[in-house]
Amino acid sequence: MSVGAEDIESVKIKIAGEIATSKHPGVAMKKWRLLFGEKQRNVAERMGVSPSVLSDYEQEKRSPGIKFVRRYVESLVNLDLERGGANIRHFSDQNRTRHKAILDIREFTTAVSLDEIVGAIKGEYLWRWKGREPEVFGYTVIDSIAAIRHMDSSEYIQIFGPTSMRVLIFANVKTGRSPLVAVRVYPLKPVAVALHGPASAGQIDELAVELAELSRIPLILSKSYSVNDMIEALRRLD
Q1: Which of 225, 179, 229 is nearest to 205 (CA)?
Q2: Staple 51 to which of 44, 141, 157, 202, CB 3.0 to 4.6 Å?
């Protein structure tokens, strides 16, 4: 599928606008580079600056001007176009209708730690990565029963929103097996998966935990009183 000029322009405006209006433009720059899956040195090379210079901007040791932001955005977009433009197509889709299985979906303006998410949903780790905790840029709360009944494979992409660097939270879960099977077989992977419904870890299917470990995706049990309470707590983050 080709990438249209309108799609390219809309993504450029979106990225530049967020960087320009952010209280932390360097953080916003880094966020978009990570969302596009680009290494710092590749973007720096395309911009004609050293990686250390770009690092200074992302760490907010320097403040970017309009011309620098324009070059940054152009570099991200052009690198993506050379790889087929998948990110541009994804981020330019502004007409996606939320599936009824999606109870809430949100993007953070800056990265949130996974531990902050776990705290908000009163979570307990069932399995976790022992290395550095990943950065989280969003979350999606899914009604697992509605997803099983009404969401086909072509619609599953909607739960990832603009980026897979998010936590997928499945509500109305009984044992957790079905959500983890779906996550295991789908090509895109979230930062982590949380389950809401079971009262204790003992009610979680052992296969669900095993699949999380095989996929190297942290698995969390939410003990929030209700789905609404959980969503309200998540909305207070960032």
Answers
A1: 179
A2: 44
Query: What residue type is assigned to position 164 of the chain?
Result: S
Domain CATH for 130: 3.40.1390.20
Interatomic CA distance for residues 126 and 202, integer angstroms: 10
Q: pLDDT of 70-128, one tens digit each? A: 999 999 999 999 988 888 887 776 445 678 899 999 888 788 999 999 999 999 999 99
Nearest one of 195, 191, 203 to 220, comparing CA atoms = 195
- Residue matched to tokens 């997803």: 147
Closest C-alpha to 124, from 232, 204, 201, 176: 201
Using alpha carbons only, give the angle 85, 184, 90 rounded to the nearest 5 degrees: 20
Domain around 149: 102-235
Distance (Å, whole) CA 47 – CA 70:
10
What's the pTM?
0.68
Among 39, 66, 92, which residue terminates a domain?
92
